[in-house]
Fold these 2 entries.
Entry 1:
Amino acid sequence: MLAIQGIAEAGSGHPGASLSAAEIMGTLYFRRIKHDSSKPNWGERDYFVDSKAHSAPAYYATLAVAGYFPIDEIKTLRKIGSRLQGHPVRYSEQQKHHSVPGIEYSGGSEGIGLSVSIGIAIAHKLDGKNNRVYVLIGDGESNEGQVWEAAMAASKFKLDNVIAILDRNRIQQDGFTEDIMPLDPMRDKWLAFNWNVIEIDGHRVEQVIDALNKAKQVEDKPTIIIANTIKGNGIKHMTNNPQWHGKAPPRKHTPILLEELESECLIAPSIIAGERENYDEKIRKAERGGADLVHLDVMDGRFVPNTTFSANTIRKLRHITSLPFDVHLMIENPLKHIRDYIEAGCDIITVHAEACDESEFASIKESLLSKGISPGIAINPSTDIPNWIYSYTENIDVVIIMSVNPGFAGQKFIPEVLPKMVMINKKLREHGFKGYIEADGGIDDTTLQQVYDSGARILVAGNAVYGSSDIHGAIIQLRHKANVALERRLIEHASAIGIRSEWIKIRRHILIPLANELGIEGELHAIE
Ligand code: DX5
Ligand code: ZN
């Protein structure tokens, strides 16, 4: 979001490339790279080389959030006198007015970053250090012969401390990579150069983490992670369109674009629904259907009148998928059991406000954060959110607002929770909450629009998914409904700021198939 804000403010930049590499950079800086923003020259740090450099806005945004410079400075992107120029410049004391701490490499001339990374990596080997060099390369710059010379050198020197990530978005400055200079079969090429090759979806953070973990275990070979990405990901009318390689969106569109990036909706099938057990199969089917999370309902027969499974089952299920586990603990005294769930491999752990007090929650949250697990808090339909929650907003990633009384899947949605959801969402945001509101219970294609409009962005769906004979189709249908809900919101936003027909026009290739559901057939016709 910061990247788009900066580009729109500057009136120039590369939105597409920033959006294709956003998850990769975020995962590197917040989950992988050894670094310390208070000591940018720390001798034990890992290096990051942004070879493609066109993703500079995303890079700056990541560094700002990581604490290297004030977030507000993003607004100076590409302005005369700013440290944040179109292509990042390596930081040095002498150049401190032209660059920001943390940047190790001056990009812009394409095809060179891998060679520089190899130099750094060889130096580390000679010094007996085990820091790694992560290098982001673009597929456009892979046209350069120097990339392939570097590839040969890295395997000759057995540089297992080099981890390259290829942002494979298939679009370069003037068009599609395969038209300009075909690169495929990319995987075979790197294998032939004797690299360890891992191929992933570069927008799935869990896959990026997984690949980086695997790369760390490889010895005597460099690794390349081919991250299949989408240029312009997250802003639908920019996706996969070469036109948006280097064009800034009009400034008046910024609030709607930011809303779109913020309005991404995650679908979390709840595996206790439908036929009993058979969890392995249910998780596999959810993954195939394109679910974003797996929702795991833990019930102890005391906090709720039903028993499901506990940490042991979760541990056994962990190897089935790399999809994040969204674990909802409906148990008494969660603090007592939290360690078991931490060790089981959960990614989000949510406890009920009714089951713990402020000090217990504070200890739970600390243990989770220290292990990189997202903390969540849940409240029942009839519970008012306790006020102490607002003092933890910066550290809570998920707030589950139950839309049924917990205990069983397949219950009827309670619409009375909607105004509460709106109110809580508003108040949480006022207190700096940056996480997700999760709606849990009775979500299906008839209730989805309302919970979406009330602010929920993680949607748990039990019966709507596993009660169906076509699990894959059921997930796709929910996703479609969420898309319609999003487009409706964006159009309303555009109307409110007086650019409705301009928005519908720029977005028409997305809106045409939804015109009927959105009731905008006439308007689209007039535009054509
Ligand atoms: C209720 C659980 C929910 C529920 C979801 O106690 O927390 O996750 O099972 O299932 P549906 O969508 O069927 O209400
Ligand atoms: Zn649940």
Entry 2:
Amino acid sequence: MPEPPLVLTLALPTPLYRHFEYLAPLKLDIDERKALRPGMRLEVPFGKQTLVGVLLSISHKSTYPLHKLKPAHKVLDTTPIITGDVLALCQFAAEYYQHPLGDVMMSALPQKLRTSDGTLPQTTYWQLTTEGKGLSANSLKRSPKQQSAWQALLTHSPISEPALSALNIDKPTLRQLHKKGLAESFQQTHSTCTSTPATHTILKEPHRILNTEQQAAFDALTFNSFQCSLLEGITGSGKTEVYLHAIERVLHAGQQALVLVPEIGLTPQTVARFAARFGVPITQLHSSVAKGARLENWHAAQTGQARIIIGTRLAVFAPAPRLGIIIVDEEHDSSFKQQEGLRYNARDLAILRAKHNNIPVLMGSATPSLESLHNALSGRYQHLRITERAGSASTPTMQRIDMRKQTLHCGIAQASLDAIGATLARDEQVLVFINRRGFAPSYICQSCGWSAACKFCDARMTLHSKPRKLHCHHCGNQSQTPSQCPSCYNPTLTALGQGTERAEDVLQTSFKSYKVIRVDQDSMQRKNAMAALTTQLNEGKPCLLVGTQMLAKGHHFPNVTLVVIVDTDQGLMSGDFRGIERMGQLIVQVAGRAGREEKPGTVLIQSYRPEHPMLEKLVTENYHNFAQSLLLERQQSLMPPFSFMALLRAEAKHPDSARGLLTQAAQLACEIMPPSDNCRYLGPIPAFMERRNDRFRFQLQLQFSNRQVRAQLLKALILKIDKLPLSKRVRWSIDVDPQDMG
Ligand code: ADP
Ligand code: ZN
Ligand code: ZN
């Protein structure tokens, strides 16, 4: 009797909010049909295209007549590639962020697995031969490398090559054992590790004894069940040490730890610290890992061989069959939110994943986001605090400098220069923070008022001096600097304001005998530039660092004792409701780079509005009180976290199309759910930068009293927008819990 046809429901990476049905590939034999499982990838025809999709379910029935279904081309995997908790996480993310499931699943996979050619790497496993097993303990002692390789194989066989390399056992040594007939290898692809987890030496170096506050935080953690904790500890208070202890605990239980860290810079130092402490295989997942290696690292996590997985936001989707804890370091950092495509927040998904897996999630920050702080204060999260710096370091003192009363040297106050001079004379290091790269943010004609503007954006061009060029920081457009004013032919044009390059020049001129090092996106393009910088600073010679927020994140510069923050007013005046929150976080994080060892640190904050009540609170009290006042303001104005937001964005070549689509969308929203205390619709309004990259941008702000109402409205709204003729001509997107309001 012929087999009844199999109907496969797939998630495909299309912008369509639905699943797709196919028949099983024609050439599948009985065993292959039986082996089909949700989570496997298939290649299917889709119109004129070929797509890779993920199998969701298998049945014999379809809502369509069977003869209308097309057969899939082929099955790409022998075992499911998205499984268990990651599958559930994808499904949740698709619902929560109102994003097509197929696309969510593709974002969860390493790039190489998003195409038909990509398959799981074959892993080479090693084990001892019978002869190898029979060897007496000291037979290889003349070759220490072979001896330790043999020892490792004796304890852990079979063990994968990545796991061996994490134990510092290289391939040539293994091949030598092979030649002697002592070891053999075999290839295997599988999604979960079948061998027992290798019993590595967990601690390579002894852990530090926790101080009282750290110990109290650690003792409050529960393992083996869901618990969400916010560790609010000032910079340098030893939060990382608490993470390390928590991870140690999880490793002893044979589990894996997932550590999420913000973008760039931070990772090398964190990884080095983890690698120094633990003897287990550690794998990294972030965008600077090469594509091929990323697949291997992903696979190491999937097989369970990698015991610690450290990565940026994308790592929240990393497979980990024995996950025991998720740690989110610097949880306030906005890089956890993806700004295009699937606009997810990895911190929020981390909590969800922990809940699903019934494991703890530990989030840490010196400057928690108002969202997390609110949850901690209201008792939804466990609130752990560390109020003193670990070791001998004291907290830096903050002083405001009133720019109105100062002689300025290209934006740097005389008082700051004096303090810098005194610090260098004491053989200490200085950090000057200026959150703008380039030489000057505008290039103008003082006689007629012309300023260099981007052809494609509503934005001024930034003057760069190394090499001299005008750059648009919003679309990447570059042009030569004009030799005279294009409008009135005045031959002298003026650079207005300051960026890192200009500050570098001024400081180098003022402090000729000291090294000035600029740290920004432009100067740090070389690979490992950040690591090289850290090494140089650790030598301890007096020098000046000038840089952008790249310097603010997590670094440990032991000899920096003075921090100068050149401009805080941008944050105070920002149009974004999170502007002040971000400014406070940035100041405290930058300040946290000062005085991390024995010598006390000082922070100078330059401002034209030093009396601003929020700045006052931050400087004279602390971040916690500052954040609490902001929370009160948010509560009064019903802004997040006291309401739940979504932004509907639209952009098009013609402003009328983008605005038009949103006007229609606003009407539809009103029809689906009339405005009330539960939902408010604001707009369409132009984005902060109305035209960017030659497109006009508008947005509709949707605010709700709770998440369920929001999900309900958005779901219905998207289906209706999809049917509007204008939606085909306008690029539009939904951003749930937007971080960037521009
Ligand atoms: P955070 O992550 O809160 O910024 P770190 O964990 O980096 O802080 O700790 C800051 C410094 O204090 C580091 O040099 C760290 O080695 C040291 N430290 C942390 N905990 C202890 C401890 N219990 N005893 C001694 N030194 C500690
Ligand atoms: Zn002019
Ligand atoms: Zn531009």
